[in-house]
Design brief:
Oligomer: heterodimer
Strand content of chain B: under 5%
Number of strands of chain A: 12
Largest sheet of chain A: 7 strands, mixed
CATH class of chain A: Alpha Beta
Order of helices and strands of chain A: HHHHEEHEEHEEHEEEEHEEH
Helix content of chain B: over 70%
Number of helices of chain B: 11
Shape of chain B: globular
Structural class of chain B: mainly alpha
CATH topology of chain A: Sulfite Oxidase, Chain A, domain 2
Largest sheet of chain B: none
CATH superfamily of chain A: Oxidoreductase, molybdopterin-binding domain
Number of helices of chain A: 9
Strand content of chain A: 15-25%
Helix content of chain A: 10-25%
Mean pLDDT of chain B: 89
Order of helices and strands of chain B: HHHHHHHHHHH
Radius of gyration of chain B: 18 Å
Structural class of chain A: alpha+beta
Chain lengths: 299, 192
């Protein structure tokens, strides 16, 4: 028996119309919150359908450009990303300074990965990139190196958010070395087949899909291999709320909000929250990194 | 002329509703519409609480009694927007799923204090009529002093939910402090 794919039965146009019909129905009900009562059991998709380019590039947490979600899109337009180079230093035999052109020349592939923000929302992003290990293998790492630290550029002239003490600038993030070498830890060079927009961390950022979004440092200028656990920006700002690991974990609540569920960006006002998955759904790939660890303590 | 003031203030007070209705119909609520609605009404609740608290200082400054006429209406709007804020959180965000909601209220201090503020607003809204003023007599004034506590709770709610030092909650805090300072009778402390 021939099986139909959903796309074969419903053309995209009708499918979209159907969605906008449901949406307009929602508007008809007006602003009254009670209108959602009959829709308690409505289901949102936990699909891997990419979020729109517009939402990915206009809804960003990038405090270097301001704390509003729309600030990075508005203020990063003229951010200088050339010339740019990245230093790999610390516990390495010989430190290395790579011009950005050399990094972008490494072969990228499309990687559709889910971003889960610690604030309780998620996106699916078709990144372009390659494994960070490819970059780290360009240097000879000393056995004493246990952690990798990432430093974002400090440029308060252009990054207006850095003029205020919202965080300790420059932004520092970090990973354990085995996490950094994991093939899913991605050097991002673009999205939707295009070069990486400034508001998304151009010219060079990393992306760790099983951790909360803030772990994925943007506009990186330094990669430092270290003996000790890096003093990462958010842990530094509030150690009770943000741990070094910050793996997506529905069972460990943030002190101020639950992490059990998330809102899918771009869904209609009537779509309910979806369940958050352990390691953001990448448990099969990464759970072994934490075997034997108490993830409630090592949040 | 003065007869038109009250209806005018009433229609201006509906501004937050006009905005959200417009954005809803023109699909401008952004990528996180539910969050947007909750935050929108939360901020407007605080604005109306501060407006309510501004009427007495304005009366003193301008030596005009006119301002007090709007105080009740502004206070009721604060309660109205607080209720929409709370209902959109309970209904739109959590779909009346009470288990995680109760968990939130008990465990998250910013939700606990916000919910407390809303509960405390209820007796004030109920006793806002002229009739209740007459029935409660002196107690009415005592009861309605709760608004000071509610306003502090409301601003704390905003500060505690922010991830780091944000401007908006700080601005609300500064305005609140100024408005509360007006209530302190400095002459009392002047011993000479």
């Amino acid at each position: 028996m021939k099986k139909f794919k959903y796309s074969e039965i419903t053309s995209e146009k009708i499918y979209n119309k159907r969605r906008s019909f449901i949406r307009s129905m929602g508007y008809g009900l007006g602003t009254i919150a009670l209108s959602s009562v009959p829709l308690i059991n409505a289901k949102a998709s936990n699909s891997n359908e990419p979020t729109s380019y517009k939402d990915i590039t206009t809804y960003n947490n990038f405090y270097e450009f301001g704390t509003g979600k729309g600030d990075p899109h508005r203020r990063a337009k003229n951010f200088t990303t050339r010339p740019w180079s990245v230093k790999i230093e610390g516990e390495v035999e010989k430190s290395l300074e790579l011009p950005i052109e050399e990094i972008l020349a490494i072969k990228s592939e499309e990687r559709i990965l889910k971003l889960r923000c610690v604030e309780g929302w998620s996106m699916v992003i078709p990144w372009l990139g390659f494994s960070l290990s490819e970059l780290l293998n360009k240097v000879e790492i000393k056995p004493s190196a246990k952690f990798v630290e990432f430093e974002t550029v400090y440029n308060p002239e252009e990054m207006v958010g850095q003029r205020y003490p919202t965080l300790n600038w420059p932004y520092i993030e970090g990973l354990r070395i085995d996490e950094a070498m994991h093939p899913l830890t991605t050097v991002v060079t673009g999205l939707y087949g295009k070069p990486l927009p400034n508001q998304n961390g151009a010219p060079f950022r990393i992306f760790i899909p099983w951790k909360y979004g803030f772990k994925s440092a943007k506009s990186i200028v330094k990669i430092r291999l270290t003996k000790n656990m890096p003093n990462t920006a958010w842990k530094n700002a509030s150690p009770r709320e943000y741990g070094f690991y910050s793996n997506v974990n529905p069972e460990v609540d943030h002190p101020r909000w639950s992490q059990a569920t998330e809102r899918v960006i771009g869904e209609s006002i009537l779509a309910p929250r979806i369940k958050t998955l352990m390691f953001n759904g990448y448990g099969d790939e990464v759970a072994h990194l934490y075997s034997g660890m108490d993830l409630k303590k090592n949040y | 002329m003065k007869n038109y003031f009250k209806p005018a203030v009433f229609f201006f007070s509906l501004w937050p509703i006009y905005i959200i209705t417009y954005q809803l119909f023109y699909n401008q609520l952004g990528p996180e519409p539910v969050d947007r609605i909750i935050n929108h009404f939360g901020e407007w609740t605080l604005i109306f609480i501060l407006l309510t608290l501004s009427m007495t200082p304005l009366k003193k400054i301008t030596s005009s009694l006119e301002w007090i006429k709007f105080r009740r209406m502004l206070g009721l709007f604060a309660f109205f927007y607080a209720s929409i804020h709370m209902l959109s959180y309970v209904g739109l965000d959590y779909r009346f799923d009470f288990e995680p909601l109760i968990d939130d209220v008990l465990k998250k201090k910013f939700i606990f204090i916000g919910f407390s503020a809303w509960l405390l607003l209820i007796p004030l809204a109920i006793t806002s009529s002229d009739k209740m003023v007459r029935i409660l007599k002196k107690n009415w004034k005592k009861l309605h002093r709760l608004i000071y506590l509610i306003s502090i709770f409301g601003v704390l709610h905003f500060i505690w939910l922010s991830k780091t030092i944000f401007f908006k909650p700080l601005i609300f805090l500064i305005i609140l402090i100024v408005l509360l300072l007006f209530r302190i009778n400095f002459r009392k402390f002047n011993l000479s």
